[in-house]
Design a protein that fits this description.
Elements: H1 7-46, E1 55-57, E2 61-71, E3 74-75, E4 91-92, E5 99-104, E6 108-109, H2 115-122, E7 126-127, E8 130-131, E9 134-135, E10 142-146, E11 149-150, E12 164-169
Parallel strand pairs: 2-12
Antiparallel strand pairs: 1-6, 2-3, 2-5, 4-5, 7-8, 8-9, 10-11, 10-12
The structure holds zinc ion (2 copies).
């Protein structure tokens, strides 16, 4: 009988099948591991690159600085509760003395501390081209000092803890 297999032959075949199954399992496992590693690498490579120099803190900040604005000889009133409302902005005022509170949680980047942010939150226009409807070079000259030192960064200035910022348009 050609179809008849003795016990030993059946055992051999079973072992062979077992071995093949083991090999397939190894290949599948290998492919899964490789794709996981590949995905991990892809994720790392495509992460947005933020230079360490732009990182202010990774554990939050609570800074205070002060701002005063004088337009054509008149002091501009800085209201209380700028940035405090339905949305509580990490950059805000509590007093009317021009104190800017910067209360950020977690990771803080340099762009979070730009003076531009304060004016955006306040809803007033300010940049090197002018302030609150006054055009620099046309209606007058815009100047800014930080701790008494002339500063030409204007809206791009990154506020530091303890800063005294003066903006003068005359
Ligand atoms: Zn504060
Ligand atoms: Zn506060």
């Amino acid at each position: 009988m050609a179809e008849y297999k003795n016990k030993q032959e059946v055992k051999k075949e079973l072992q062979k099948n077992k071995k093949t199954f083991k090999e397939i399992k190894q290949v599948v496992f290998g492919v899964i591991i490789l794709s996981m590693v590949g995905y991990g690498l892809f994720w790392i490579i495509t992460l947005p690159k933020i230079p360490q120099s732009e990182l202010i803190s990774s554990t939050g900040i609570h800074w205070h600085s002060s701002i005063s604005i004088i337009i054509k000889g008149e002091k501009v009133n800085i209201p209380t509760n700028i940035g405090i409302g339905a949305v509580h902005s990490p950059m805000h005022t509590h007093e009317s003395d021009g104190t800017i509170h910067m209360e950020y949680n977690g990771v803080v980047y340099e762009k979070d501390t730009h003076l531009r942010r304060f004016f955006e939150i306040w809803g007033k226009n300010f940049n090197s081209k002018g302030i609150m409807g006054n055009i620099n070079g046309k209606d007058g000259v815009l100047r800014m000092t930080v701790n008494g030192v002339e500063n030409s960064e204007f809206e791009n200035y990154s506020i530091k803890d303890g800063d005294t910022i003066e903006i003068i348009f005359e």
